[in-house]
Amino acid sequence: MDEVEVVVAHSERATLRVGDVFLKVDGDQARIHTEVEAMDLAPVPTPKVLWRKPPVLAIAAVPGTALGRLGEPSTASPAAWAAAGAAVRALHDAPLPPWPGGSGRSLDDLAADLDRECAWLLTNGVLPADLVTRNRRIAEAALRPWTPVFAHGDLQITHVFVDGDEVTGIIDWSEAGQGDALFDLAILTLGHEERLGEVLDGYGTDVDRDVIRAWWSLRSLLVIRWLSEHGFDPTAPGCEVDVLRSRMCGRAGP
């Protein structure tokens, strides 16, 4: 009998793996509905839905291995990263889904979130004031109007699977919707900034790299409290706090 592996578990949801089947348990059925609908509409490889019985969604494992992991060097080839960029471009060129998405929050909401999280970081002495202040200043460049695209909304490198130089699957679509294209590109390259050029080679169009860097800062500032409260460590090497520190050296970046 296959063992049950806990892939991720916290107070909002849990994902279990049994052999080649993933069981996603989520008390918010709206997220499950979004995931199923997004996988059906996305013009890129996605997991096969095996069955759905609330609060559980069963999906098949996709072939290949994750593009990488936050905090660890990626062994994927430059061509694989470029293929990921091309897959993201295909998604962004697809017709918009008929619902908003996580990165599609209003600019006012994002600004309020940034104010709140920076205040929490400073009030509780979680990070040095100069680190928060500089990254907040950088992050503000992301708070600008954008043209919505079909966005994944949580395009971490662990959610993109490759076999050699080919993308074999993109998983975890619960945050998909209408969002900012540069948010997806930023999350894909978060903590792997040296791979941004390869991703953009595959993406195939000019983008504002300063806005991508702004999303690196904004995303990291916004999630540190949530990660800390849900059993994750944003201070681990190469993770969110290191992403913020990398902005302190004053270099332009990739």
TrEMBL record:
Would you say which domain of life the source belongs to? Answer: Bacteria
So which residues are the signal peptide here? none
InterPro entries the UniProt entry points to: AGP_Transferase, Aminoglycoside_PTrfase, Kinase-like_dom_sf
Q: What is this protein called?
A: Aminoglycoside phosphotransferase family protein
Record domain Aminoglycoside phosphotransferase: where: 23-206
Q: One Pfam annotation, family name?
A: APH
Q: Which organism is it from?
A: Actinacidiphila acidipaludis
